[in-house]
Sequence to fold (562 residues):
Amino acid sequence: MGTIRSTRTLLFTTSPRSPEKMIPEIRLLINNLEGHKWYETTQSNYYKLLIEEDFFHSTENESSNPAFSARDRVNRGPQMLGFINLRPEITLTQAGKKFLYSSRPEEALLRQMLKYQLPSPYQKASKALGDIFWCKPYLELLRLIRYFGSVTFDEIKIFGIQLTDYRSFDLIIEKIEKFRMEKAITKETYVQFSGKVFDSETRSIYRSELSNKNYSVRESCEFSEKKYLSTKKQNARDYTDALFRYFAMTGLTAVSQSGHSIGIAHDRIEDVDFILDSVDRDPVFVDDLEKYQNWLFDPTTPSLSTDNEETLQLKIKNIDENFCTSGMDISTLKNAYDSLRTLRKEQLLNNKILVIKDMKEYFDIVEVFDRIKRKEYYDNPLMFEWNTWRAMTMIDGGRINANLNFDDYGNPLSTAAGNKADIECDYGDFILNVEVTLQSGQKQYDNEGEPVARHIGKAKSKWNKEVFCLFVAPRVSDATIAHFYYLQNINIRHYGGKALIIPVSLSTFVKMIQDSYKASYKPEPFHIMKLINRIEALKDQVCDEIEWYEKVQIEVASWLRD
Fold:
């Protein structure tokens, strides 16, 4: 239970930032600590378990404050959304069981998001904040998106999170419409204009704190107006980013990567309208913990349009008009609908792959890489991984599998669990892992150095064949280069022996794509193996890692030479 002491905007769980990550983290907690008291020792033990898992990525020092880090992962998303109960001891709720073990985790997540409310017995405003909160945040932001058709990241960041009371919905609409009008006529650049508005709105929200010079910021010893405003703005960005990601998993919304906006998925408008018409906007059981938990933990509420047999039959017919639904109960209808959606997605993906293999996406692939370099997309890391998958699919044969989640129409939705390579290229006689990152410097080495090698070891064990790796980044850090240079020369059983990881700059990788497009023939897996063999030979021809890296770039940039 917690008190909201200094936040005057909507707040959403940002830990974990992506909801898919809650599933393995909750499962780890329940499998190891269910029935335990949730106190500091248990929290520390959980975090120690967590950092040993492949799916968890953190650069935080284990010894800094493991109990605090554990609370950050558990007390927010998992507890606030009702998937676990921490009092009197750790237990998995019925809603949590649906989220972890059902075939429709996105449906379980949606129901809980629609029940998340401010205030609640879990979160109440301090006396200083008064009665600022009275809403169900996800419900009201969904209503806002539906009203406008689509809303930009900045519009939610600046205005949407001010919707702390649903009775001020019309006021927020007026603010966004005014923002759009002024944006259309301003002579300033958009960055200048939106930055000024963001600063003005933030100052207005926290005018009392600024007037009284109450600059206290969580986990900071710096007390200044600049630091205070900077923190509040960053919080707004984090809340908005998490909101996009949580809505994405429900399937109700679609994100425009280039437009940095979120809208209702075109085939889910009726589902959204049903929610907006039927879900009560008022918070419930604010002062009654037992009744609130009974309501929150119920996996069947609120009702969704897909709980109705006639609606499901219609959705099924929209996908396959010849599919017979006669005699099916609601559970069977849901399974049938899921199967048809999966089949449709696979067909769409297969059709896209055929187009990519025919080189018809070449110019778009190169352009997307250019836009990623300029950081033009909402989720540049996701787009980098997806576009690299497209590039590898295009340049040579083999089965190219991306460790991505795709939406119903074959578009990139989110990155998947981090316990295997970003992309796995199966060329029959050997495997080529492809790992991509936009990180640079020490952070690149900390987050990518060991996992990349570990993924090779896992793939070798799984496939019982040679596994190599192509590592692509806009700039490969010196520490990463040194690490990979070392690994190709040392036998490490955990990595399946010597690990050949080929570090390549994004510009060199694009040259590799261009050569594939210009070639008078279709590259085949043996061209990849010839490149690998040439790079393997370099270790006996260089004096250090820097010379090795430079020669690797030359080899990759001319990979189709005779």
In short: The chain has three domains: 2-296, 308-346, 359-557. Residues 308-346 form one domain. The two ends are 67 Å apart (CA to CA).
